[in-house]
């Protein structure tokens, strides 16, 4: 019979991505971090109207950056290459993605300012923590999600589709689809219902009618 046991990680980078403890001292980690520093510096020091240049830089920085994506500078991250973003994404200024583990963001996701996605974790034991090892767990965010400003998402969290997270929330547990959640710790306060959709579709129709009337 073939040995189906999990094969050990080949290096610190593989251990980092697998969620096991690792130490960030490998050549690959160094090179990836320096690459990020170069690209983030170029993004954050670009001219105010250099939209095309920044779009190209974000496409180079991220593992994937879907069509219609837009990130307001300043921005920062750990590696960038471990972040995968779908279509029509928007992030306001001062967002930070610590993508030590993979960050996956779906389509039509909007972030307010100063959103933090933090995949790293550190040992609770002080002696182990101070000796250097750390870890990370992936963050997954579904489609049609909106975060208010200053939302923090911790390691290992999954957020479903069609979710609103209130400003200032600290997300330490998974959030199910079709819900509004707020607080520290963040918790679901209600579902998103057909009544919500009908109300906002009506408000949007009202806006389109007004817009048509003044053109």
UniProtKB/TrEMBL annotation:
SMART domains: Mac. It is an enzyme of class 2 (transferase). InterPro entries: Hexapep, LacA-like, Mac_dom, Trimer_LpxA-like_sf. Residues 13-67 form the Maltose/galactoside acetyltransferase domain. GO terms for molecular function: acyltransferase activity. The keyword Repeat applies. The keyword Repeat applies. Keywords: Acyltransferase, Repeat, Transferase. CDD domains: LbH_MAT_GAT (cd03357). Its EC number is 2.3.1.-. Belongs to the transferase hexapeptide repeat family. This is Acetyltransferase. It comes from Bifidobacterium hominis.
